[in-house]
Write a structure and sequence with these properties.
The protein is of the alpha+beta class and 192 residues long. It is built from six helices and ten strands; from the N terminus they run αβββαααβββαβββαβ. Strand 1 and strand 2 form a beta hairpin. The radius of gyration is 16 Å and the shape is globular. The two termini are 22 Å apart.
């Protein structure tokens, strides 16, 4: 079963329009389960346009779920393999087109609000966390070098390829529109 199929199979839509699911993954030869939360706001645009959350998941590319699974399997702490991600809160997957160029409209956007390891504090992906957590530094560096993603926008840094194919790294200063909308989550654009 693919990651997408497993998330759809385990989906629960709650009364407040938030949704939960779970995804099993192997981390150092042990099967773990990660709870995935989708707040009601994560699919509000789709809901207001008449879509169900099942349709949001169906319209999200397989590669987006494969990246999510890759994130769960990524070394959370290379010195302690007993630590893994037990919960992840997403703020967006696919959403209906508004005539823009957002990778979410193509089903290739993944936004993370927070990650909760089984041991230790939740990592909140916002300016509340003053500097980029080391886990995200390693995660984005590996995802970019392996060609899994083409963009990484966060409250701390903005990575993207320019028209000449050069990887640009800039701090998120919270000035441009793109910087402002990424002050409260981490965004991955999945490679085609």
């Amino acid at each position: 079963m693919s990651a997408k199929e497993e998330i759809i199979k385990n989906l629960t839509v709650l009364a407040d329009n938030s949704c939960t699911s779970k995804l099993n993954f192997i981390y150092y030869d042990i099967i773990h389960e990660c709870k995935i939360e989708f707040p009601a706001s994560s699919w509000e645009k789709a809901r207001l346009a008449g879509y169900t959350f099942d349709q949001v998941l169906e319209n999200t590319k397989d590669g987006t779920f494969n990246l999510l699974l890759w994130i769960l399997r990524f070394d959370f702490n290379e010195n302690d393999h007993t630590i893994f991600i037990k919960k992840i809160i997403l703020s967006s997957l696919w959403r209906p087109s508004t005539g823009g160029t957002s990778p979410h409209e193509d089903g290739r956007g993944l936004d993370i609000i927070a990650i909760q390891p089984n041991i230790g504090k939740e990592i909140v992906c916002s300016t509340v966390t003053k500097s980029e957590p080391g886990y995200f530094v390693k995660l984005r560096t590996n995802a970019l070098s392996q060609g899994l993603i083409t963009q990484f926008f966060s409250p701390w840094t903005m990575y993207y390829y320019n028209k000449e194919g050069q990887l640009i790294e800039e701090p998120n200063r919270g000035i441009t529109d793109n910087e402002k909308i990424h002050l409260n989550h981490v965004h991955f654009t999945i490679s085609k």
